[in-house]
Amino acid sequence: MSEEKVTTDIITLTRHVLDEQRKHKEASGDLTLLLNTIQLGCKFVATNVRKARLLNLVGLAGGATNISGDEQKKLDVISNEIFVNALRSSGKVAVMVSEEDDEAIIVEDGLKGKYCVVFDPLDGSSNIDAGVNVGTIFGIYRVREDSTGTVEDVLRPGREMVIAGYCMYGSSANLVISLGNGVNGYTLDNSIGEFILTHPNIKIPPRGKIYSVNEGNASFWYPACTEYFNSLKFPPSGKNPYSARYIGSMVADVHRTLLYGGIFAYPADKKSKNGKLRLLYECFPMAFLVEQAGGQATTGTTRVLDIVPTQIHARAPIFLGSKDDVEDLKNVYAKHS
Ligand code: AHG
Ligand code: MN
Ligand code: MN
Ligand code: MN
User: Which uninterrupted H or E stretch holds 230?
Assistant: First the structure.
C-alpha cells in the first residue's frame, strides 16, 4: 500500500498573503491582521452552519426582516454578530456595512482603523434549512486619504476595492480571495484550523457550457434577456444547448461559474427594476473576483465595477462569468438599446 505523502511545507492563507504582498511590495501588517479576523469569522460561521441542525439554529429569527425585506434567519443574525464583533475588535476597521444592519457602522475612535469592510454575513440563507451550500461575501476599501471613516468611504465604485472574497460553507469551507493580483482558493483544514492553499491562481475558462439564472422570473424578463437565454437553450443546428444549473445561493453559483465557466445572472426585469442582488456586498466582490480570474461582470450595459453606489443597500442587475459568454450577452443588449 502506497504511503500517504505528508505535506511538510503547507501554504496557509496568512503565509500566502504575506508572500504575495512581499512580491508586490505592499507588505502591510494591517491587511494581514484584518484578513486573519475575516478568517476567524469564517471559521466560526462554518462551525455554526455545520452544527445548525444540532443546535436548533435553523429557522427564522423571530420574524425579523432586514432593510432589504429579507426574513432574517437565526444564522443570519448570529453570523452578522460574529463578523461585526470580530471586525470592530480588530482595530483595523473604520466603517462596516452589512446586509443585516440598516445603517453603516462607524467604529468608535480608539478602535478605528484604516479599512472599510462591506459584507453579506450569510449568503443563500433561504437554503440553510435544506443543508444547501451557503456562504459569506466581503469586500474591502481603504479609507480615502483625508477621511476619518464615514459612509462616503464605501459609496465608491467596486473597482476601488483592495480585497474581495467569499467563503463557501459546504462539505468543506472554501475561501476564495483576491488582493488585486489574481484569485486564489483555500480550503479549511479543520484539524489545524488553517485555510490551506488548494486552488492557486484560479482562471475562469473563456467560454463555458452552463447558464445559471432563476427561470421562474422569465415571464418578467425584458426582450434582450429572453433573446439571450433562448440563444443558449435553442442554439443554431449543430450546436449543443447549454446546461442549466441554479442553486439559489449566489456564493455556490458563482463558485461553480468561476471553476467551470459559463454565465450566472440576476437580471433586472419588469418586477425588479434593479434585479435583486445588493451592489456593495454581493455584486461588487463577485465582479471583482470574476474580473481578476479573467472573466467579465456587467449589468447588461455597464461594467458592474464602474457603478457608483447611491446608498449602501442599493441593488444592481448582474451577468457575470466567462469573458466570451458575457461578451455575447452584452452584444444582445447592445442590439436592443
Ligand atoms: P441572501 O441569502 O444573502 O439574502 O442572498 C440571497 C440571494 C443570493 O444568494 C441568490 O443568488 C439569490 O438571493 C437567489 O434569489 P432567488 O431565490 O430570487 O432566485
Ligand atoms: Mn438576506
Ligand atoms: Mn446574499
Ligand atoms: Mn445574506
Answer: helix 223-233
CB 198 within 8 A of CB 249: no
Instruction: Give the three-class secondary structure for 291.
Output: helix
| Prediction pTM value | 0.95
Residues β-bridged to residue 199: 185
Q: Which residues pair with 315 in a beta bridge?
A: 278
Residue 250 near ligand 1, beta carbon < 6 Å: yes
Angle at 158 between CA 267 and CA 259, to 5 degrees: 65
Q: How much distance in Å is there from the Cα of 237 to the middle of ligand 3?
A: 38
Give yes or no: 34 in active site. Answer: no
Cell 443570519 sits on residue: 76
Contact 182 CB / ligand 1 (< 6 Å): no
Question: 36: helix, coil or strand?
Answer: helix
Q: CB–CB of 90/113 below 8 Å?
A: yes
- CA–centroid distance, residue 121 to ligand 3 (Å): 8
Told to judge if 122 belongs to the known catalytic residues of this protein, a careful annotator would answer yes
Determine which one of 35, 75, 123, 232 is catalytic: 123
Cα–Cα distance for residue pair 28/23, rounded to 1 Å: 12
Does any ligand 1 atom lie closer than 6 A to the CB of residue 320? no
Q: 142-171, pLDDT tens digit by residue?
A: 999 999 999 999 999 999 999 999 999 999
Task: Let me know: does 332 contact 292? Beta carbons within 8 Å.
Answer: no
**CA distance readout (Å), 281 to 58, 121, 123, 136:** 23, 9, 10, 10
What pLDDT, in 10s, does the model give residues 85-113? 999 999 999 999 999 999 999 999 999 99
pLDDT tens per residue, range 108-138: 999 999 999 999 999 999 888 888 999 999 9
Q: Which atom belonging to ligand 1 lies closest to the Cα atom of 249?
A: 9
